[in-house]
Amino acid sequence: MASKRNSEKQVIASSGAAAVPVRRKSVTTKRTPHTAAEISSIPVSQPEILALAIPAPVTLAAPPAESRRDVIARLAYSYWEARGYQGGSPEADWLRAEQEISAK
User: What's the confidence (pLDDT) of residue 94?
Assistant: First the structure.
């Protein structure tokens, strides 16, 4: 009897192995960016199309100022680093860093 073949899901079976469907990569087309000449050729009478063709400028917010706690933590870490990452007390390093920052 002739077997029916399904082109979407082919099954490859070897001796003693479970049947596993073959996966195929999906076919997609490459997107090409618009050139400046193409964008400039859009009639100005269609501002909604022009607005879609030209991306809006991205504004970056200034990074937040470093908090006092972050400054103390970094200074306390530098004390531990200066000792060669050995010995000492994290609490003592923190207190020393707090005192130094407060003195400034």
Answer: 95
